[in-house]
Design a protein that fits this description.
alpha/beta, Rossmann fold, 3 domains, four-stranded parallel β-sheet
Length: 329
């Protein structure tokens, strides 16, 4: 209130300072009102003095009373489960206006509007969200959609899909730089590395494991080398029994028998698509495996390799560790 009064008084002073100032004794005897008897030079001096005084006071107030001008945070569309999870983990979830259907964590992301599946995007659905910036996993597409977005003035950043611990750290740091949150990135990386140092050992000779990620034409789709599934098995000290091929490949019953896995890991979305655990266990190539040789994990946790990588590795290592031998009486 005091500052307001000072400002209003300053404005009034500045206003009236534009009027010529009379010299002492220059009043009309009949009216006792001031009459201008100053010269033009004197008027200019008067205006300069009062103008400089008021401007100086306003400048001083600007220093004493800071004014905060905050730009609106960019509207984000995030595509790819690991990218979305990382953006939220960095504390920028409030900027996310839409996600793709593979973004299933955290719960706040699930409630956001959807722009479709990461690999089959359409520019129209994304533009309808009025984003300033699209952050997408490298596997998202088609590429022409991102070109359309850029042509429409939307910034697009493609983030490489993590395939190692270093890749995960790089993804976190890259997104943190874009979002201006380096301190939060350092905390996330520190938590991740601490979790990985405390991984339980699966012990003994590495177990031969396969990761089933779906089915096709009556065959089982298995993850080979160069995949996130393969990277996760390597991280916990298991051996990918399907490392003879790269990428994902449908495998028939005879090929499954030749792979001879000692354990089968299944992301939960694949298990639903395959009709449940009992149906999967009924495959001829798996009939020799016991129920405890099947490991079911959340799909994004297992394959995303995002900020929860430490938790994912711990749960996978624990599940693959052989059961302790029963003591003989």
């Amino acid at each position: 209130m005091v500052l307001k009064c000072i400002l209003m008084r300053t404005i009034r002073i500045h206003k009236y300072s534009l009027m010529p100032l009379p010299l002492a004794g220059s009043f009309s005897r009949s009216t006792r009102r001031p009459t201008c008897t100053t010269t033009r030079a004197e008027n200019r001096v008067s205006r300069c003095f009062w103008g400089a005084w008021s401007i100086g006071l306003l400048s001083l107030l600007a220093i004493v009373v800071p004014v905060t001008v905050s730009a609106e945070a960019p509207r984000l569309v995030t595509i790819g489960g690991a990218v979305t999870e990382t953006v939220f983990a960095l504390g920028a979830g409030d900027q996310v206006v839409a996600v793709d259907t593979s973004s299933t964590y955290p719960q706040a992301a699930v409630s956001r509007p959807k722009v479709g599946y990461a690999r089959t995007l359409a520019a129209e659905g994304i533009l309808a969200m009025r984003p300033d910036h699209v952050l997408a996993a490298e596997h998202a597409g088609p590429a022409a959609v991102f070109e359309q977005l850029r042509a429409a003035g939307v910034a697009v950043t493609l983030v490489p899909d993590p395939r190692s611990v270093n890749d995960t750290v790089s993804m976190i740091e890259t997104l943190a730089t874009l979002l201006g949150r380096p301190d939060r990135a350092q905390a996330l990386v520190r938590e991740l590395l601490i979790a990985l140092r405390g991984l339980p050992s699966i012990g003994g000779e590495p177990r031969d494991v396969i990761v089933v990620i779906g089915g096709q034409g009556g065959q089982i789709m298995v993850a080979g080398r160069g995949t996130a599934a393969d990277a996760m098995l390597t991280l916990v000290g298991a051996r990918n029994a399907a490392s003879a091929f790269r990428g994902y490949r449908p495998v028939g019953d005879e090929a499954l028998l030749r792979l001879a896995p000692q354990a089968v890991v299944v992301p939960d979305h694949a298990l639903r698509a395959l009709g449940g655990l009992d149906r999967l266990r009924g495959q001829p190539g798996f009939v020799s495996l016991a129920a405890d040789q099947f490991v079911v994990l959340d799909s994004l946790l297992l394959l995303g390799m995002g900020p929860r990588l430490g938790e994912a590795a711990e749960r996978l290592a624990t599940a693959l560790a052989p059961a302790p031998a029963m003591a003989t009486p």
